[in-house]
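Q: Make up one entry.
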Amino acid sequence: MKIQGSIMNRIQESACMFPIDFKVTVGFGGTEYMWSDKHAYSVCSVDQNWRNKNFEIIGVQQDNAERVDNNGASESQSYRFTPNTAGYICYLKSEIVETVNGKRKLYKPVIWNEETKRWNKGGASVTLGHRSEYHDFSF
């Protein structure tokens, strides 16, 4: 559990749950929430039933984000996103969780361990469902 960073990023980061029958598709947007910055991502690969293990493995790559406003070092920022097909791929694993509203699906960051041939917890925490970019100029 993260305890650092802006409260808004922590709230947005934890609000990414989907119906259990939700299907992620290539091109779907996501956001990596940093301390207060945000980086836009796109889904580049989807394995709906990874090796018949009943979970999904989603590959995401950070997008190219071009600033398109003229607001300088301000809070008001607008970006144009294009895919970065040469970028590093981060992975997310689906997980079904029980909530007060029933079962929901969420995606947690994982890293492939070549030695054990397993997915381990860790990696970039990318939240699916909304593509956003933001640079905090106060740091």
